[in-house]
Amino acid sequence: MVDKVADKLARLRAQMANEGVDLVALGPGAHIQWLLDYHPYPDERMCLLLIGPNHHAFIMPALNADAVREHTDIEFFTWADADGYADALTAALQKVAPEKVNLVSLDETMRADFALNLLTALPGAKHCFTERSVGPLRMRKEHDEYLLLKMNALIADDAQQAAANAIKPGVTENDVAEAVKNHFIAEGAKPAFDIVGASENGAFPHHHTSDRVLKQGDTIVVDIGGFKQGYPSDITRMVSIGEPSEEYKKVHAIVEAAVQAALKAAKPGVIAKQVDDAARSVIAEAGYGEFFTHRAGHGLGIEIHEPPYISASSDVVLDEGMVFSIEPGIYLPGKFGVRLEEIVILRADGPEVLSDRPRDLVIV
Predict the structure, then answer these.
(1) 10-residue mean pLDDT series, the chain (364 residues)
(2) Pseudo-torsion of CA 139, 143, 148, 149, nearest 10°?
(3) Backbone Cα Rg of the chain
(4) How much is the pTM?
C-alpha cells in the first residue's frame, strides 16, 4: 500500500528543488490537512510544520502534543507556555533547515506573528508563498479527491432541488436556505454557505440571505455549498416564481453563453486568464460588461476557494486534474442578478462538469 504522506512529501521535495526553496513552513490549516489528512488545532501558540530537503518536524505546543500524536508520527519539538517557543524553534530549524536558508516558502494563511518570528530566526532569508511549493501539488487533484468532489456535487444537485421545492410566494430567503441546510444534513454533509437572493438582492453577488419575503415574479439566485468527508460543493442555479421578464430571459441566455464559452476555452495548456476572457467577452459583446464584476472562477478542493483562480490577472497554466468553478454573472442594480456556476475537473480533452443538474431556469 502506498504511503500517501511519504509520497506527498517526496513530491513536495521535488517541487522545492525545482523552485530553489530551502524550507517550507506550514501553519495549522488546509495545507497541512492536504499533506497529513489532519491538522493541529489552530490558536495563538506557535505551531508549524517545517519541511526541509531531507527532514521535517513540528514545532508543537506541549498542550496539544498528545492529541496530535494520535494522528502523526512526525517528530515534535515541543514547548510549554512557561518557557516559550524560542528554544523549540531553534532546535527544529537545526534539525530540518539547511545551514543557510536562502528562500523559505511560507503558508500564506498562517498567523502573521508565526511568519514574522520565523523570518526573524532566519536572517537573510527571502520568502515566497506556497505557489512555489505545496500550491501546485494541491491544484492537481488525485482520483480519490475527484470521487469526493463528485459525491459532494451530486449532493448539492439535490440540495438545489430542495431549494426549488421550497420556493413559493410568502416564504423568505432564509426559509429557502433552511431547506438547503436540512438537505445537506440529511445527506451527512455539513452546510458551508448559502446565498439566496431574490430579484434586487440577487444583484449583490455575495448577498447575505435575509428575511426578504418572496413574491410572484421574483427571480432568485441560489448559490450553495456543503462539506462531506473533508471536501466541498459549490453550485449556483436560478429559480423564478412564475414566468420571468423578457429582459431577464435575455440576460440568463447571455450568462449561459458565457458559461459555454468558458467551458470551450478551458483546456490543458491554456492560461487561466484566457478562460476568464472567454466568458467576459461574451458578456461585454452583449453590452453588459460593466455588470460582470468578479472573476470567472476559483479553484475548489479542501477549501471552497483555492488556486487556481480564473481571473483576468491569473497567469496559471491550466493542467489535467485541476478543479475550478466557471461562474460568470450579470448583476443589474435594483433589478436582479444572474449567475450560473459549474465545478469542473480538467481532463486531457477539456473540462468534465461535476454536476448533473441542468443550468436551465427553474420556474415554480
Answers:
(1) 87 98 98 95 96 97 95 96 96 95 97 97 96 96 97 98 98 98 98 98 98 98 98 98 98 98 98 98 98 98 97 97 98 98 98 98 98
(2) 50
(3) 23
(4) 0.94
Whole-number pLDDT of residue 2: 63
pLDDT, one tens digit per residue, over 29-47 is 999 999 999 999 999 999 9
Query: What is the torsion angle, in degrees rounded to the nearest 10, for the CA atoms of residue 261, residue 263, residue 268 and residue 269?
Result: 20
Shared domain check, 208 and 261 = yes
- Domain termination residue (choose one: 113, 138, 163): 138
Residue 57 is part of a domain; what is its CATH number? 3.40.350.10
Strand pairing of 48-51 and 103-106?
unpaired
**Structural domain of 352:** 143-363
73: amino acid identity, one letter: D
Alpha carbons 89 and 50: distance in angstroms, whole number: 10
Each residue's pLDDT tens digit, 154-192: 999 999 999 999 999 999 999 999 999 999 999 999 999
Give the whole-angstrom CA distance, residue 169 versus residue 364.
10
As for how many domains the chain has, the answer is 2
Q: How many CB atoms within 10 Å of residue 95?
A: 15
